[in-house]
Each structure stands twice: as structure tokens, then as C-alpha cells.
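Annotators were shown the component list below and the corresponding predicted structure, then asked to write short factual statements about the assembly.
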Amino acid sequence: MIAPHRKHALWLAYALHRASGLALAVFLPVHFYVLSLALTTDGRLDDFLIWSDQPLVKFAEFGLIFLLAIHFFGGLRLMALEFLPWSPRQKTYAAFALAGSFFVSCTFLLSAA
Amino acid sequence: MSADGRILKISVWRSGADADAGSFQDFQVPANQHQTVLDVVSWIQQNQDPSLSYRFACRVGMCGSCAMMVNGKPRWTCRTHVKKVLEDGFMRIEPLRNLPVIKDLVTDMDPFFDKWIAAEGVFHPTKSRHDAFASIKPDNPARIEANKAVECINCAVCFAACDVVANNADYLGPAALNRTWSLVNDARDGGQAARLQAISQSGGCHNCHSQQGCTNFCPNELNPTASIAGLKRKTIATMFKRGQHA
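Structure shown to annotators:
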């Protein structure tokens, strides 16, 4: 349940940016662990990559790429907000960040299918 | 105003023995055309419970004293029409968020104004009455920036809308920082170094998360988020300039 004073587009953009950042922070150790397999154990990275070709894993990767893209575009939006002359089109930029993230992640999903 | 026969269901926060604790009390209020939230609160106080405490003065959106939470959102009640905020014939009225409650709908505004002082939201004159007036043209870029921030009526709606204020007791808040931005752009002011120092510290402008609730709810349609972004740019530029001189 979102409190009434938070029900506006730019608070939701903030919340999405923060939640995606936290989710990526949780994901990063797993990411580095998988990368370390290439250095530490012969053949285990190849086994993992074969396992990751499963449709469900590809769908999870779509989610990860969406998180990465929304955090990237949302970060660009915030840096523009803070370092460029003020623009009244803040909601438009937040909408572009969301649309761009769906475009990038859906492109990945379609190419993986 | 003329009564149209409808009855509004109003739930009003009432303080208990401890001002911050309490409960909601329900009232039924006749609906009128062009009725504001302040009209409703006044009707309850005048017709149903004279012990209800609330604060107002001008009734025309100039003094900034009548702000309350209405259905969970901060509003200036004297200029908020009931029909704009009514949800299924119901309205819940509470004291402003993020401020201590004195009684019922009256909040203690001291923490709000203390932060204006902490943010150096005070004019530091550089001339006496014997000097000539400062000549500042209306199209001066700094004057234009100050103009955008200067119409604040101190209603604390932005302060109540801000989640950073709610979670960080040291945060100066959007109104104080907006005031600071108007003074940063005042060529007559002589206190800029102390001002930038005050807003660069913990609790200053860099604590803002740009959620933009302040801008969304400001009844005077000011943009404290833009003011705070301006302060962020100013403090960072000042830091680099100091680095060059060090």
C-alpha cells in the first residue's frame, strides 16, 4: 500500500531507482562468483553457461537487464536533474527512462528466444 | 453558500492526554457549494465541538497557517475545495506530518522555522540605510532564479510531503533550502560563505533524494526541488573553486 502523499509519478520513479539499485547490489556478488568460476575451476563456467540457456533463466536475465537499464537511465535522469539547468519535463524524462528500459530488456528477451 | 442536502462524513484527528497520541473522531457536516476544507473544520468547531483546535488567519492563501493533512496529502485548507479532495463522500483531516502536535490539528512550527535559521535563510545586509539602493535589473539571471523561489508562504506543506524530512531529523527540508536558494541569488547579501557551509553539511541540500513531493504539493506552485538542485550545483562548483585556490 503506497501512502497517499507518495502517489505521484516522480516518487514512483525514485522508488523504482532505489529498488533496482538494491536488487542489483544483491545480484552483484552472484555475478562476481559466476565470473570467478572461469578462473578457479576448470569447466564449471561452461557448465553454468549451458545451464543458463534454459528459458526460465533467460526470463530471469530479462528481469536483471530491466533492473540494470532502469537504474542506468534513472541515474542519467537524476544527474541531468542535478547538474543541468532545470527542465520542467521531469515526468517525461522518467517516462523515457521506463520506456527505454523496457525497450532494452525486451530486445534482449526477443533475441534470446 | 447554500446547503445542497448532502452530508459529508468527516474524520478529524483529536489529541489525547499526550498530544502526539490520540484518535479520529467522526463528524457529519452539511455539504455546501464552493466549500473549502477550512470551512468544514470551522463548521465543526462552531457547530459541533468548540474544543476542536486548529490554526488559520487570512483564509485567502497568503498566511500559510492553515495547512493540514487531508486524506493523507498535505494541503492548504483555505484554498482546497472539498469537491477536489473528497473520496466517496469521506474526508480524513489530520495535523501536518513531520511536525510535533500541540493539540488536535495544531502543529508546533518551531522545528520548521529553526531549520530556516540553520540553513542560513537569513538576510545578511552589506549596506546601511545611508547607502544608495542596490541596482538589480529584472532580467538579471540571479534575480530571475530568486524570483522563482521567493513567493514561499511558509505553510510547511512541502515539509510534510517530504520523506527525507520524515526519516532524517537533521535534514533542513525543502522550504528552508528553497529560502536559502533565493538568498544565494541575492547580490545584496554578504553571508554567502557561511550559507554554503551550512547547507553543505550533513542534513543539507545533498541529502535530498529528488522525490519531488515538495514540488508536487506546493500550493504556490514553487519548485523546491529545482532550488535544491541549484544549491547542489552551487556547492559543488564552490568546492572545485576552493580546490583550485588551495
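Statements collected:
1. The beta strands of chain B are 3-15, 22-32, 67-70, 73-76, 90-94, 101-103, 106-107.
2. Chain B has two domains: 3-107, 110-245.
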